Structure formats: structure tokens, C-alpha cells
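subagent[fold] <- orchestrator: predict structure for attached chain, return C-alpha cells only, no commentary.
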Amino acid sequence: MPASTPRAVLQLQLVPAGRRLDFDLAPDHHAHVYRRSAYQPWECIAYNAHSPFVDRAALPVGAPTEYVVIYYDPAGQVTVATPIAQVGAALLPAAPCVLALR
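subagent[fold] -> orchestrator:
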């Protein structure tokens, strides 16, 4: 039976706690979430991530931020990556809302 491959779909939403990323998971793959701000190098912010994933990190003020999810098979080989999801700088809060934290 062929191994299933996750669909390369990434949805990004602003929520009170930060930025919520929704993406597919496959039982035989693991997902790593990458972020970059102000067109700097990509940084892995979550290994073996689960969906939904909420990025609560404070971001540079006025910098556009991008996310991508890369899927790996059990051998550690890249199988698929989502398209880049970008949030414009004007829409990003400088830090997570403390009222949403529990």
C-alpha cells in the first residue's frame, strides 16, 4: 500500500494569543513549522508540530512575517512543503495579547 502524503495546505489566522496555523497531518509523516520575519533566514519554530499550531512569539514591529510547513517521511526526507503564508506587517501585533493567556 502506498504511503499517504499530506496535502500541502496552510491556513494562517490571527488570534488573540498570536498566529494560528492550520495544516494537514498524515500518520506516516511529521511536520516542521518554519518562520521568517523581515526576509531573514528561515527558522524552525516547531519540530514534529501538531495542527493547529499557535505561534505566540513576539515579532519585530513593522516586519512582514512568513510561515511554511515542511513534511518529512520516516526516513527524514522532505516529501512536500506548503505554499508560504504571509501576514502583512500592518496586521501583526507586536506581542501576544496577555488577556488571551490562561
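orchestrator: received. Logging for downstream: The first strand starts at residue 10 and ends at 15. The radius of gyration is 14 Å.
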